[in-house]
Give the backbone structure.
Amino acid sequence: MNRANTALLVVVASLPSIVAGMLIIRSQREPTKPVLAVITAPVTVVTLPPAPSLPSPPPPVRLEPEPRPQQLPDPQTKPSQELVVNVSPAPVIVVTPPPVKSEPKPHLQWPPDIFTKPPRKPSAPPSPWIPLFNGTDVSDWTTGRSLWGVSGGVLLNSLGQDPDWIESTTDLPQGEFSLEMRIKIVDGMRFRVRFNPNFWLGNEGYQRQFEIYGGDLVDVERANDQTYVTGQWYTLRLVVDAADHVWFYKNDVLTYTGRLKARQPSRVKISAGDSWSQGHIEISLIRLSRKALHPTREISPASGASGEGVTISPDFRRLQFFPSVCMLLRRTL
């Protein structure tokens, strides 16, 4: 035999084996069906067992969110104004707000009101008077042997004879000044106010009268009635200018004029009586000014009720030194 015949025989002899292998492979793909190999050739029939089944893969795990616990509303809290939106498919309605009308802005004035200061009220001019008696006590005074006291805003003395006196702790000005006091003579005939060591205002002699006297005064002239009545209130004012001219007024009426020939530092000293005549007085007002303020009978609103700030013309001042001429004019008129 040649080589070609030999090869053909080998192929024919191996053909059943090849068919059997192909059947085995197919049986593995379908393991539930038995495969019966039938070989027409003189080959042994072999029944193959079913192939072992592979384990089926586990089912897929489905992750679901945990259900949230239902939160009950707190009865103590008020329900909040929340907007509940329905997420179910529904037609969307768009609401368009009406147009807002823009108002014109107000015109700003300059300067604004917040920077405008309110008008100031005209303040009253300061008073030229300095109170020497505060109406409550005698803390600004020194007393003599007897006690002085205050009752109802009125200064009172207790003894009524010398040395029953009270002296202010305020020095009198060396230039012009005015002193005014409101006084009532209860009894006695020796009320006195001392300004200089020898310059007095008060009651001297045997009549009830207010006068100025003393060795420090010259050219003393009386211009009007100087008497008084016990138990009545009187307003006494003494005015001294820078040239040492002196005017004394009783109830705003000129009573005496004069001139000081000497000036010495002094204070106001008041006595109610002496050993010859005991006396008691009441004083409701004592005040001092560093200006020569003359009273006037025609009170203007600007000057006040007591003639504060009133000035005397030079002609009127010149007439003060001629009281006899003034008295003559009054008699003729």
